[in-house]
Structures are given as structure tokens and as C-alpha cells.
Description:
This protein has 1 helix and 11 strands. By secondary structure, the chain is mainly beta.
Amino acid sequence: MNQTHTGSCLCGTAKFELIGEFKKFFLCHCSRCRKSSGSAHCANLFAPGAELIWLSGADKLSFYKHQETNFSRTFCSVCGSNVPTEIKARGIVVVPAGCLDTSLELSPQAHVFSGSKGNWDDGFADLPVFDGMPS
């Protein structure tokens, strides 16, 4: 069943609409995802056969492909936020979950490439939780 999702980058320059269905939702801990996100993992949604429509900011998008790998990222050249990447050769759109402006019913299905996660990426369940920045 086709769904419509919208999203944007941090500064709002790049806005998109995705028509399709997310089939997979993975938290990727590979070193490339850690470096591109600056965090423990990337939260990526996979939408095979989806249609990606840029509503604004398409002229401000930059694309990076890591040599000799399948790793690639599309990002806003104004604010640097990761936005969807359409991989036409594989017929799939990869969407960073954090750039969605619409609700998502799908929960992460797996941690992937956990063998290369950062040595500091453990024990998060035991950390205190705050609704905002602690004082």
C-alpha cells in the first residue's frame, strides 16, 4: 500500500515528498554511517520502488559516493543534513529517518554492522533519561 511521507533538512531548504512504502528500517553501526552521522549509528529507512519528489532545494543538494563501496549520501549543501538518496540502479530510496516530518508507524527492525560499532556504543539502556537538556 502506497503511503505519502514528507520531510526536510534542518534549515528547511530541501523539502521532499516520498510516495511508496518503507519495507526495512535498520540502525546501521558501520564506520561510514557513524562518520556521516557523528553518532553511534544512522537510522535508515528503505523504500523499494518509491517515488521521490523534491518540492524545493533540489539545486542545493550535494551527493557523496565513497570510492570502491556502495556507500553514498545526499545532503543539503546549506546545513549539511542527510536527506534521501535515490539509488536508481537498485530501484530503492534510502531515507534517513530523522529527516521525516511525518509520523512513522514502522519501528527499527535490526541493528546492522554491529561488529564495527564504536567501543563506546554500549550500555545506553542504563543511562538517565531527560525530557530536555539537564541542568
